[in-house]
Design brief:
Blueprint (H helix, E strand, L loop, with lengths): L8 H18 L5 E3 L2 H4 L6 H14 L5 E7 L4 E7 L4 E5 L11 H15 L6 H4 L2 E4 L11 H16 L6 H5 L6 H18 L4
Parallel strand pairs: 1-2, 4-5
Antiparallel strand pairs: 2-3, 3-4
Helix pairs in contact: 1-6, 1-8, 3-4, 6-8
Protein name: Ubiquitin-like protease family profile domain-containing protein
Keywords: Hydrolase, Protease
Pfam family, one: Peptidase_C48
Length: 200
């Protein structure tokens, strides 16, 4: 189930919930917020609803350091991370060698503007302009591993990076994931599903 197929969206939805509760045990919940991957990916058929959802979520999590969520575009899972302290968003894409236009970038910028208006920041020029960066990150060697990369990044940002003082780019720009890293991601996913998901 976890070795040769793309991850189902329900697993990624649950993964964010799991990390939220797991983060509470590590006292990092005040640092990280999570976005629903289904609603984040809805810009493909309902951009306005997606913009409002993200704007509302950013307002709720305005005191967090990072707000992140998986999104699906071009048959590929990626991760967006809002770095709220520095007014920019990072996109982690494990297939950067495949040149592609990301439709989500414009929607993220519009979501940010809407959030600024809702928060009464319309006159603060720098805070109204969201810079979206596609940052250097580990690259997948095969076509079916994108979901595991996203899960591993979410885990590392929550557990290992949320309290570090250096930038997110410095944290995730290391070498590609090893077989051991991928095994860890699969084990985390398998344990999470076994402990939290029931098959009907």
């Amino acid at each position: 189930m976890f070795r040769y197929e793309w991850l189902n969206i329900s697993i990624l939805q649950g993964w964010g919930s799991f990390l939220y509760h797991y983060g509470a045990t590590l006292e990092v919940n005040g640092m990280v917020g999570y976005l629903c991957p289904e609603r984040l990916s809805s810009y493909l058929h309902d951009a306005r609803a997606m913009q409002k959802y993200v704007a509302d979520a950013l307002k709720i999590h305005e005191n967090k350091r990072y707000v992140m969520g998986a999104f699906f575009e071009n048959n590929h899972w990626m991760l967006v991370v809002f770095c709220l302290e520095d007014y920019y968003a990072c996109i982690l894409d494990s297939l950067q060698a495949e040149k592609k236009e990301m439709k989500i970038i414009e929607e993220l910028k519009l979501s940010w503007i809407l959030n600024c208006v809702q928060c009464g920041k319309r006159h603060l020029t720098r805070k109204n302009e969201l810079e979206c960066k596609i940052i250097k990150c580990p690259q997948q060697p095969r076509s079916y591993e994108c979901g595991y990369y996203v899960m591993k990044w979410m885990y590392d940002i929550t557990v290992n990076y949320s309290k570090r003082k250096d930038s997110l780019e410095n944290c995730v720009s290391g070498s590609n994931m090893t077989a051991q890293d991928m095994d860890q991601a699969r084990e985390l996913c398998s344990k999470f599903c076994k402990d939290n998901l029931q098959c009907g």
